[in-house]
Amino acid sequence: MIEVKSLVKEFRIHQTRPGLGGAIRDLFRREYKTVKAVDHVTFSVEEGEMFALIGENGAGKSTTIKMMTGILTPTGGEIIINGYVPYQEREKYVRSIGVVFGQRSQLWWDLSPLESFRLLKSIYKVEEAAANAWLDRLIEELDIGSFVNQPVRKLSLGQRMRCEVAAALIHKPKLLFLDEPTVGLDVLVKQKIRDFLRNLNETEKTTILLTTHDVTDIEALCKRVLVMDKGKLIFDGKLAELKEKWGSGTEILFQFRARTTPDQLRAALGDLPCELIRENEYAIRVKIQRSQEMLPYVLSTVMSTFEVSDVKMSEASTEDIVRNIYSTDSEVAAHE
Amino acid sequence: MVQIVRLFGEYLGQYFKTKLSYRANFLSELIGNLVFEFINMIFILVVFRHVATMKDWTRDEIIFIYGFFQVPYALFAMFFNFWDFNERYIIRGEMDRILTRPVNNLAQVCLESVAPDRIFSLLTGLLIMGYAAFQLKLSFAWYDLPVFLILVISSALIYAGVYTAIAAISFFSDSRTGIAPMIWNIQNYGRYPVNVYNKAIQILLTWILPFAFVGVYPAAYFLRRETWYFYTMLTPVMGIVFFCIGLTVWKMGVRKYSGAGS
Amino acid sequence: MSKLYAELIRIRFLTMLAYRVNYYSGIIIYNINIGAYYFLWGAIYGGQPQLGGLSPEQMTAYVAISWMSRAFYFNNIDQEIAQDVREGKVAIEMIRPYNYLSVKAAQALGEGMFRLFFFAIPGILLVSLFIPFHFPTSLQTWGLYLTSLLLAFVINTEINLLTGVLTFFLFRNEGIMWAKRVMVDLLSGVTLPISFFPGWAQALLAFLPFQAINYYPSMIFAGAAGADKAAQVLLLQALWIFVLLVPIALLWRQAKQKLVVQGG
């Protein structure tokens, strides 16, 4: 459904010179620098997938989304979505997609969302009866019926955002782009939007692409995650794999009945790659990298050798992982 | 095209719904327009207190040209409101939204800012023309009406072409307010007969920013000034040519915006 | 505090410089404006030696200089204030440790200086190549003109602040601001020297501040006002500056109260 092959986007950025003299020189001649915003990105997506594109600010997420929605033309590479090349057959292509830009409104500020929906129906030339049934369903499932008649400027951010989602879906697109859809929303509204999206994906087989800063969005919605850094795609896979690759592993805190030193524990575990940290005289923290294989061994060995009074295990959260990725140099990460 | 016409109706409906919620602004814009036209009339009236003719044009002829000048401008301004194009669509990024919708992007931008209240300017223009025609005892034949319509539409197309091209400059430059207000300044010289200016300005107003074709050239036909008939007949040609130029620059601009133009 | 305002002026000056398309087109269009009016007046004079007390040469100087003066005093701070009010930014401005209106005035001065140095002066030099145009020869006239111009800037800025602050009460008044702009151009004498108006209109205008914005400085420059007259004119301008402060102060106090009550 989505085929992206070694996609490249370069920008020329105007460099301002400092001070008054610089400003005057800028009037006559400007200096430019070429920046690779997206650098040979390749991936493909099946129909009905729900996936997230994450990365720091400036990693190239928005540029990628803009190329996928037909707003920007790539410098190089190929995109084919729903059988179209977005930037070449834009007006035909955009009928098959819906876009929600979290920061920008689709709705007319002075009018009620219902009026905006009406206009959008004409813009997308949708068939009246079917569109009305579909709209009724959107209104019900997004729970926006109670304020859909008020002017947009009087709505709260959460109310408006749900209307934005409905507006993007008026024409029943097969593919939905959501650019930072939950920024600044409270937990309940986030939950409502997520439930709605999950249901939409299940019943209509709508493919959903999400860019976000909010890790909980990904955990709630997406099995698949793409991570971009400095224009490159540095990870493409399941959320679980992401955790394994960048997660700081599993930590096990053993509480012993007798005084135990890390040396004693090391002797028992042999040369197993793990880190031992002494919490106090009775407690030792064991850090291991790949949890699936080593965890049973560590547990059984320690339990059988020492008298253990308590065991606590903790796994790194996705949020920690993402922080981990961003703080790692991309070069290192890419060649790992 | 059919869809655009239908959409126009829809947008018009929305326009009235919006405007009704800002009655004070509607009124204030109306006052602004009236004051502007009133002041232009004052200039003409005050100047002709001191002289009998300007070059070879009498006061009432100048007033007639001024009245005609209002009509195509009002028609143009009803559909093209590009004054805040840069601010709204480029800086605030609304162009992205336009591009993700399946309707011609220029048509969308126009439709989003239709201003049917310009009909008032159109009416005052007709009124001023009517007054001057009465004073000048002009007579009209039946075919003057279709000629009038053709000339007005052609003049409106000239405006549309010029301002579309200028709005499209926003795609290439990061300039904040753009040059539209300044072009607007030049446009206002089209309401006086071009032969009062020197050769260079006449050429500018005829061929480069052809604002003589929105006032004196077409109006000369109704004043029966045969020396200018050639330019009167040229008006529809200029309208089409400049509108096409506007569309071309716009298309180039959109290509540049989407990063394919550089 | 004065360091803050100097910085504001400098920043606005640099901001204006950053928009180069505006800059290039600005110079061209100033010339076109001056040129077009020059020819329009040429056609109006049509060989007559004097109209409204001005010879064709004085008229030429008047047209050029009235546009040059306008470049300096003209600004859109009323529209900026209106935008701040509409977008609710004004509430934030209120809690900053400075006076909002003075900040706007300082920004206007930065903009005016930019236009004077980069539009008007190159513009007028260019125009003087094509149009017979005499600069005043005496240093005294230059001094009087520049003083008068500065006072004109203050008066025009005060009027803009006044219409700007009105947005607090009217919310959307773009049309009124636009009407004000063309009114100021007419009544201050940019489009038409005041001496052209009929007697009753001149008498009426004498009681309004508008001709202090353009007509006075331009007449000094064109040499149509002697030293005595010039001193009188400067005094009148200073008077208007103080008179206009009263409605601004009153409206501003009301506006602040309104803001406190309604929260913007």
3D architecture notes:
The complex is a heterotrimer of chains A (336), B (262) and C (264). In chain A, helix 7 (187-204) links the parallel strand 6 and strand 7. With 336 residues, chain A is α/β, with parallel strands linked by helices. The longest helix of chain A has 18 residues, at 187-204. In chain A, the strands form three sheets. In chain A, strands 5-6-7-3-8-9 form a six-stranded mixed β-sheet, with helices on both faces. In chain A, strands 11-12-10-13 form a four-stranded antiparallel β-sheet, with helices on one face. A three-stranded antiparallel β-sheet of chain A has the order 2-1-4. Helices cover 40% and strands 29% of the residues of chain A. Chain A has helices at residues 19-28, 61-68, 90-93, 113-123, 128-142, 157-169, 187-204, 215-221, 239-246, 262-269, 291-305, 318-327, 330-335; strands at residues 2-15, 31-45, 50-54, 76-81, 97-101, 175-179, 207-211, 224-229, 232-238, 250-256, 274-280, 283-288, 308-315. Chain B is an all-alpha fold. Chain B has one domain (2-257). Chain B contains twelve helices and two strands, in the order ααββαααααααααα. A two-stranded antiparallel sheet of chain B has the order 1-2. Chain B is globular, with a radius of gyration of 19 Å. With 264 residues, chain C is mainly alpha-helical. Chain C has eleven helices and no strands. The longest helix of chain C is centred in the last third of the chain and has 36 residues, at 227-262. The B-C interface holds B 22, 24-25, 27-33, 35-36, 39, 42-43, 46-47, 49-51, 53-55, 169, 173-179, 182-183, 185-186, 189, 192, 196-198, 201, 204 and C 19-22, 25-26, 29, 32-33, 35-36, 39-40, 42-46, 48, 51-52, 170-179, 182-183, 185-186, 191-192, 196-198.
